[in-house]
Amino acid sequence: MFLASWRILLLAPLLLGLAGCGHDGGGVDPASYRLSVEQWRERRIAELMSDEGWLSYTGSGRLREGRYTVGSGQDNTLRLPSGPAQLGILELAGDGTAVFTATAGSGATVEGRPFERVVMHPAIVGGSAPTRVQVGSATFHLARSGTVSGWRYRDPEAGNAERLGHIDHFPVDLQWRVVATWHAFPEPQPITLLSSIGTPIEGSSPGMAVFERGGRTYQLRPVLIPGGDGRMFFPFTDRTSGRESYGGARYLYAEQPFEGELVLDFNLAQNPPCALTPHVVCPIAPPGNHLELAVDAGEKNYLAPQ
Length: 306
Prior knowledge:
This protein is mainly β. The chain is built from 3 helices and 19 strands. The two termini are about 20 Å apart. It has 2 domains: about 5-50 and about 165-305, no CATH class; about 55-160, Tumour Suppressor Smad4 (Sandwich). It has helices at about 5-10, 30-50, 160-165; strands at about 55-65, 65-70, 80, 90, 100, 110, 115, 115-120, 135, 140-145, 150-155, 165-170, 175-195, 200-215, 215-220, 230-235, 250-255, 260-265, 300-305. The strands form 6 sheets. The protein has a 5-stranded mixed sheet, with no helix packed on it. It has a 4-stranded antiparallel sheet with strand order 1-11-10-9, with no helix packed on it.
């Protein structure tokens, strides 16, 4: 269960046509807005079910220093959910260096070329793409979160539609499209997030979004993590967390502030990848991003298929 590319994590841009209009939904046509949110939900489901979506991950596990036989056969020390019975041999050194030797006739390739032996670079947040061993449409790669090493397996032909469970939503409410006041810090402040397995993820926060709700003032700090797409990333919890919504965090993305304001559209709050599949690791909300109110907008708990 390990970190994947942040390119996939940053799903579906916010509604750019509505981003600069009004406070708390003012000036936005309710019917057009509802349609836009519904279309966003459809795009998100399509992304999740795509070959590059989170639901295409079918296997994962932790690794320690040592030698592993890799494949789908029962006698392997690292057993894959599909693919050839013997894919190859993985050797992981104490310093994290990993070398993979392909089994003759397995059909394994790296970047489209057959190989005998390759150094495998893991996926790390903010790092370059990992080395991917591919067999047909399936891929095997390594990942690293803090000091923890692991493996991941993606098979887009493993029946994504059948594996998709149900993502329930709170009703679309224009009042949860909030225009917040932006307070930039003189310099970005370092911030450490914990992952869903307790490993640290380093980032920075450029400022604070402040908004009012029910006569009270609330604030959220965005997190910028290497490898992101430049948008503001707000992992947050609220009084629905652990009950109606996922306990570790929900994710909200916002465009860069404009003239001291930015839109926090909680109707677009989404489950993190680790709420959708056991084969990934993702950041949870920092303590300062807990809202002492019930954000009854956006996605509710994901119900996995039985």
